[in-house]
Design goal:
Layout: H1 3-21, H2 26-33, H3 37-44, H4 52-65, H5 71-78, E1 83-88, H6 97-109, E2 115-120, H7 128-136, E3 142-146, H8 153-161, E4 165-168, E5 179-182, H9 184-197, E6 203-206, H10 213-229, E7 233-234, H11 245-255, E8 264-267, H12 270-282, E9 292-297, E10 310-313, H13 316-333, E11 341-344
Parallel strand pairs: 1-2, 1-3, 3-4, 4-5, 5-11, 6-7, 6-8, 8-9, 9-10
Helix pairs in contact: 1-2, 2-3, 3-4, 6-13, 9-10, 11-12
Pfam family, one: LacI
Keywords: DNA-binding, Transcription, Transcription regulation
InterPro entries: HTH_LacI, Lambda_DNA-bd_dom_sf, Peripla_BP/Lac1_sug-bd_dom, Peripla_BP_I
């Protein structure tokens, strides 16, 4: 090894040792890789003008010494936080909802400068509060939220302020907005058609709370199938998909005592489906013979249920991944809103 190379190697070893004791900086990475600070910065930002080999070398060096960008300095310099905030409502109906959504989002953000931060929303506070808090304190570059309403004030506010967002669900607002949604009309319609084809004579559906848009979609799909066949139906008003499973079980248990009891049930989630199954069992009724059921499946739970229950799958991880990709595009490119909308079919 030449003297010059020995000196350069010693500098790098000394820099690496120093990095293990103090917080690494761009200058640390520059000394370690022998590149200019500006080149290192652009390589970490994945700038296409920097050769891929150089970008990979800088990233490996950053990982080795535990380098992380100083978010405060980055925010002052660029006005960006490199944060995406997911506002989540805790509810027990959809099994694995948060986990699946987060898995999809993190997959979409992998390899980008963006980090995912979860912001909880609790039912005793207005839905708009966490959104206002994030915007007011500039805690994120984009917001994702769920459980939209027909005239959702979060969507109106974000559109008015031109703040990047995408929501899981649609609204009935006149102004188009970014969204990713599952076709709940088709779910309820196809579920009803399946039950009717299996011989069900009276259908019952447990709907979401009426304030949510997807409740209207499910009701419309269900009633379309009912009107086509002209058969009796029942929509319980005492409970919704947000009700506790015990409450749903009790209501269905009473329904199954009636002379004209429903024999075909549509459930928008696995928890309500299990409540229906428990009520039928408590009544001494046999699933798939006395009581038929179609459930929306979002986890692997019903793969292990016997007898097998008819299900229609909603891929929440794919919904999360799609929302992540579209929001990143909205932040970077500002394409037409029509290119930031996705409706996942059954």
């Amino acid at each position: 090894m030449s003297d010059d190379r020995r000196k350069k190697h010693a500098v790098r070893e000394g820099t690496a040792a120093q990095a293990s004791e103090t917080k690494p900086t761009l200058k640390t990475l520059a000394e370690l890789t022998g590149l200019a600070v500006t080149t290192v910065s652009r390589a970490l930002a994945d700038a296409p003008q920097i050769a891929l080999e150089t970008r990979l070398r800088v990233r490996r060096a950053a990982d080795e010494i535990g380098y992380h960008p100083d978010r405060a300095a980055q925010r002052l310099r660029t006005g960006r936080t490199n944060v995406i905030s997911l506002v989540l409502d805790p509810h027990e109906e959809i099994l694995g909802y948060a986990t699946s959504m987060i898995n999809g989002l993190t997959e979409a953000l992998r390899g980008t400068p963006y980090h995912l931060v979860i912001t909880p929303h609790f039912s005793d506070t207005p839905q708009i509060e966490p959104v206002r808090y994030i915007m007011r304190n500039r805690l994120a570059d984009g917001i994702i939220f769920t459980r939209t309403e027909p005239s959702d004030e979060r969507v109106r506010l974000l559109l008015e302020k031109d703040f990047p967002f995408i929501c899981h669900g649609r609204t009935e607002l006149a102004t188009p907005h970014p969204y990713v949604d599952f076709d709940n009309y088709a779910f309820a319609y196809q579920a009803a058609r399946k039950l009717i084809a299996s011989g069900a004579r009276k259908l019952c559906i447990v709907l979401p709370p009426d304030r949510f848009t997807f409740a209207h979609h499910m009701r419309h799909g269900f009633m379309t199938a009912i009107r086509e066949e002209g058969i009796p139906f029942d929509i319980p008003t005492e409970v919704t998909l947000d009700s506790k499973s015990d409450a749903i079980r009790e209501v269905i248990y009473r329904r199954l005592q009636q002379p004209d009891r429903p024999d075909g049930f549509i459930c928008g989630g696995e928890v309500s489906a299990m409540a229906v199954m428990a009520a039928a069992s408590d009544r001494g009724l046999e699933l798939c013979r006395d009581v038929m059921l179609v459930a929306k499946q979002t986890s692997g739970l019903f793969d292990q249920i016997r007898p097998r229950v008819e299900t229609i799958y909603e891929d929440l991880a794919e919904a999360g991944a799609t929302m992540g990709r579209l929001l990143l595009r909205r932040i970077a490119e500002r394409p037409p809103v029509s290119e930031l909308q996705a409706l996942h079919s059954i």
